[in-house]
Design goal:
With 388 residues, this protein is of the alpha+beta class. The chain has helices at 2-13, 26-50, 86-89, 211-216, 232-238, 243-249, 332-345, 347-359, 364-371, 378-387, and strands at residues 55-59, 61-69, 72-76, 80-84, 98-117, 144-151, 157-165, 186-195, 200-203, 229-231, 251-262, 272-278, 293-301, 307-330. The strands form three sheets. Strands 1, 5, 6, 7, 11, 12, 13 and 14 form an eight-stranded mixed sheet that branches. Strands 2, 8, 9 and 10 form a four-stranded antiparallel sheet that branches. A two-stranded antiparallel ribbon has the order 3-4. Helix 2 packs antiparallel against helix 7 (332-345) and helix 2 (26-50) packs antiparallel against helix 8 (347-359).
Length: 388
């Protein structure tokens, strides 16, 4: 109990203050200056030069519009000779920050509501009506089973379904891609950015770009790095993939636009930087349900008034435009905060040197005697002398 009281009294009634001791030691002196130099290099080189700690930053606000151009020609037994333009292969006409280009398809024409045999597989093939359950509709079924087993062809029977007939057969994807000429289509990307904190705005069609140049240029990282028109084949190739392979089953490509602007310099130096990468996972070892596809239909009526449709399973490449970046401008508040932090860090050199001098060096006990000095209460001393 007495020990606790003594410790409490020492805590309450003792005060320590730093004491300056000049130690003439080459080792300690060089170490102190080396640590200080390292801290100064960190504060000046990393905090202020590299990270621009004297600036205030803002994130980009962006809007994107796209426009595709290109024409392709196909000649098949099912569709005959046909020309494909933008209205045919861009589905839908506009999306937010992305555009889908159809490159391949499975087309089923002249479908009507009725009953017809299912496509043969392990679950639909049958020998008699007993193998078919009326009213059932599997996840991958094209319709609702009627309960009848009907011939699909001369050698195979399948369960009959009530559906849009004839049902779609998508077991085989066309190779090469139906619209393989899409490799030479072009895509115009118009990007407007705004930094609200600095009220600064710009767009990727730079002021020095003329109408004549815009009609003839195609993006190239070396010769035309600021042209906003991209050839689809080159986008995919820049990401390290083959357009013709990707066009068969589709995929997702990212067009990345990076805006990093130093607004302490002229606005003309705030420029977009483009990069490309494939966003969907294309792993040859895990290749279940690859690519990108969806279905849509075009409806019409026959002269007799029967509703009909053409079903299209569209494979293609979706191009997502991803805009990111930040802008910085000088501000006194972050500058003073970082200067203060740097000055505080300089105290680390003193702490480190104290640890080495007082605990690691051979003369540590001698240095401790010089570092620490115990002084009794002056007033208590005077009172004792008076009492005597």
């Amino acid at each position: 109990m007495a020990g606790c009281c003594a410790a409490l009294a020492a805590f309450l009634f003792e005060y320590d203050t730093p004491r300056i001791v000049l130690i003439r030691s080459r080792k300690v002196g060089l170490m102190n200056r080396a640590v200080q130099l390292f801290i100064l290099a960190y504060v000046i080189g990393w905090v202020f030069v590299w990270e621009k700690g004297y600036q205030e930053f803002d994130s980009v606000v962006s809007s994107v519009t796209t426009k595709a151009k290109g024409v392709a020609v196909t000649n098949t037994s099912g569709l005959g000779y046909r020309t494909w333009d933008v209205a045919d292969y861009v589905i839908p006409a506009q999306e937010e920050n992305s555009i889908f280009i159809m490159t391949n398809m499975i087309i089923t024409v002249n479908q009507t509501q009725g009953v017809c045999p299912e496509i043969p597989d392990k679950t639909t093939q049958c020998d008699s009506d007993d193998n078919c359950t009326a009213g059932s509709a599997g996840t991958h079924s094209n319709g609702v089973a009627t309960g009848k087993c009907v011939p699909f062809n001369e050698s195979v029977k399948t369960c009959e379904v009530a559906a849009w007939c004839p049902v779609e057969d998508d077991t085989t994807v066309p190779r090469p891609a139906f619209l393989k000429a899409a490799e030479n289509f072009t895509l115009l990307v118009k990007n407007n950015i705004w930094y609200p904190k600095f009220n600064f705005s710009k767009r990727n069609i730079l002021p020095n770009i003329s109408t004549a140049y815009l009609k003839s240029c195609v993006y190239d990282a070396r010769t035309d790095p600021f042209c906003p028109i991209f050839r689809l084949g080159k986008i995919v190739a820049s990401a390290g993939h083959s357009f013709q392979d990707m066009a068969v089953e589709g995929g997702i490509m990212g067009i990345q636009i990076r805006w990093d602007c130093n607004l302490d310099r002229t606005a003309a130096l705030c420029l977009p930087r483009y990069s490309f990468r494939r966003l969907d996972n294309r792993d040859t070892d895990h290749n279940v349900s690859p690519g990108y596809n969806f279905r849509f239909a075009k409806y019409y009526s026959s002269p007799a008034g029967t509703e009909r449709r053409t079903l299209i399973k569209a494979y293609g490449i979706r191009f997502d435009i991803i805009v990111f970046g930040k802008a910085g401008k000088f501000d006194i508040i972050p500058t003073m905060i970082n200067v203060g932090s740097g000055l505080a860090l300089l105290g680390v050199a003193t702490v480190l040197c104290d640890i080495i001098v007082l605990y690691c060096m051979k003369k540590r006990f001698y240095y401790r005697e010089k570092k620490y000095k115990f002084v009794e209460d002056y007033e208590q001393g005077l009172s004792g002398e008076t009492d005597q």
